[in-house]
Structures are given as C-alpha cells and as structure tokens.
Design brief:
alpha+beta
Length: 351
C-alpha cells in the first residue's frame, strides 16, 4: 500500500483483494474478466452483464449494462467498503450522501439567470485508466488497482451494439458513432452500483475547475450527474457565450464533452428549471406536474385508482405516494392539498 489519503481498507496484494471480497484467486480473475470474454463471446452465460437499451427521442439510445448477481454483490462491497470513504467534490450533488436533486436546485434559487449544460455520454466517456488512477490515488498498489478497475469497468459486446436500432435521424449519426466507440473500450457501465460514485470521483477535477470558473464570474456552479448548472447576476447573461466556450474547453481537457444540443439559458422573466425543479424564487414543482397529479388523484377518488393506472404500474399506490411526497418536499402547501385527495381514495389489496 502507498500513502492512504482516505481511511480505505488496506489491501496490499491481489490475493488479499480476493480474501477481502470473499472469492478465490480464480474467481477474482474470472470476475475481473482476465480473458476478455465479455467483449467476444456470444453465449450470454459466459458474460458478467446483461444488456438493454432505452430509446431517447432525438438522441442515441441509452445502453444499460446490468451486472449479474455475484458481480453486483462484489461491486456493492467495493462501493460501501472503499468508495464510500472517498469524498466527491462539494459541487457534486448526484449520487452523494446528504445531497440530492433538491440540494442541487436550491443552490440556484432567486438568481437573475440560470444556465444549464449537459455532458455527452457521461458514464461511457469515463475510461478505465481514469478509474485506475482513482484506486492508485487511494493508495492501492498497481496490481490491486488493476483488479479493482477491471471489476468496475466493462466493454459492451460488439454483437449487442450492432443489434441496436440506428440513430433516429441523420443529425444523430455522429453522436451514435461516438457512443459506439466509447462503449467498445473499457468504460464505466451505466447500471452498476459503483459507477455513480466512481463517476463523481472521476469528475473531481472538472468540478474543481468549473467551481473556479464560476467564482471568477461571481456565479454559482453545481453538477448533478451529467447536468452542469450555473447561475448568477444579470451580467452573467452577457458572459454566457464566453462561459459556454470555457466550459467546453475545460470539459474536453478533463476527458468529457459538452452536448451542444442540450444547453439552456433562462432569466427570471421566464420559468427557470434545474433538474425539473422550478427555482425562480424558491424551490417549486412545475404547475403542469401539479395539475396532472391533482387530476389523477381526483379521478382515482371518483372512479377508482384502476381507472387511472393506464401504464399498468405494478404498485400504483406507492407510485402516487412517491410523486406526492416529491411535491410535498418542494411545496408543502400544494402537497397538503394533494395529500387530502390521496386519503379519499378507496384502495384494494391488489392496487
């Protein structure tokens, strides 16, 4: 072990890592994919991940890489026993204990202007060498850092990628190909327990530099996953183009890319939203979102909840409670009205 900057457990060798994870040396090599089978074999039983995708209107598909149970258990142990001890930058609000969408949005309430930018292919753009650097910085020797990196990164099989639908329009061809190249190299998989924490740590220097950039413009900066948000006084409007160019350059130097098609500038004259939360004067839920839930609760009370569960949500009651609780956390007065409607619904055991 080298110098430990954080109170991570001491693991001085690959053998010690196997013992720490409760696997044999051979099993460790298998889960670390020492033979690089994940990217080549056709038999799904020999893979450590199951693959899926989510379509995104006007954008390339989102590829989901879900680890199988045993690897997922190992990754959870790495998360809780190692990564939880390494702090993210204070500007990172996603996937961080004690911070949330609410804390992210609250940093930008009551500002004259809010500027949002988006990072392209956030998880897929974080390559294995950066993850290796995190574990080395934590004090682990090269062999252990290599194994930990292999356990937390992945390469998407070419056969699966080729089976995906092509881009929805000609304007997305380049973005589709960029995503394919990123997924074909060892990267952080979207769908594992460890990826969110490792992504925050990989973005530490990005957050530090963008915090400094914001301070130079007398602005505030926070990040929630791939969502970069700046806010500040009226003079920030005039500096918006300069800010965008500077952010794009810093992101490029830190191994990320700004999505040119997903940026937003909103002054207090219009509705300012951060991760779906209205921040003009105080945290609030968009009126449309409130009205939709209010109508669903009213109709559920009058006609029964089954009549409103058009999407076939398995636990519709819990689903509505979650949406209600979110609105309550942002606007207690509106939440109280919705709560009264919710309590008037007649629920059956299967709903």
């Amino acid at each position: 072990m080298g110098r430990r900057r954080w109170p991570v457990p001491e693991i001085a060798s690959v053998g010690a890592l196997a013992t720490f994870l409760g696997v044999s040396d051979g099993e460790l090599a298998w889960f670390a994919d020492a033979r690089a089978l994940e990217r080549t074999v056709e038999d799904e039983r020999l893979r450590h991940y199951r693959y899926g995708f989510l379509p995104r209107p006007g954008r390339p598909v989102r590829v989901i890489e879900r680890p199988k149970p045993r690897l997922k258990h190992i990754q959870r142990q790495i998360l809780h026993d190692i990564l939880d001890w390494i702090p993210a930058h204070e500007a990172a609000h996603g996937f961080t204990r004690g911070r949330s969408v609410r804390s992210h949005a609250s940093e930008h309430t009551g500002q004259f202007v809010v500027i949002r930018l988006d990072l392209e292919d956030f998880f897929a753009s974080i390559v294995a060498r950066r993850i290796y650097g995190i574990f080395r910085t934590a004090g682990y020797p090269e062999s252990v850092a290599h194994s930990l990196t292999a356990l937390t990164t992945n390469v998407v099989p070419s056969g699966f990628w080729m089976s995906l639908p092509g881009p929805p329009g000609s304007g997305q061809i380049d973005a589709h190909h960029r995503l394919g190249r990123r997924l074909a190299t060892p990267h952080l998989p979207q769908g594992t327990p460890t990826s969110p924490a490792l992504a925050n740590l990989a973005a530490f220097r990005l957050d530090r530099r963008l915090t400094g950039l914001a301070a130079s413009l007398e602005a505030s900066y926070t990040r929630y996953a791939d969502d970069l948000t700046f806010s500040g006084p009226a003079r920030l409007v005039g500096a918006a183009n300069t800010l965008r160019r500077a952010v794009a350059e810093i992101a490029r130097e830190e191994g990320f890319a700004v999505n040119d098609h997903k940026s937003m500038l909103a002054t207090r004259a219009g509705r300012q939203r951060v991760c779906g939360v209205v921040v003009n004067e105080r945290l609030n839920v968009p009126r449309y979102e409130y009205d939709v839930l209010k109508a669903i609760l009213h109709n559920s009370s009058v006609h029964g909840p089954a009549s409103q569960n058009r999407a076939g949500v398995p636990d519709f009651r819990a689903h509505l409670l979650g949406r209600l609780s979110w609105i309550e956390s942002l606007n207690p007065k509106r939440g109280e009205k919705l709560r009264r409607q919710f309590t008037s619904i007649a629920w059956h055991d299967d709903q």
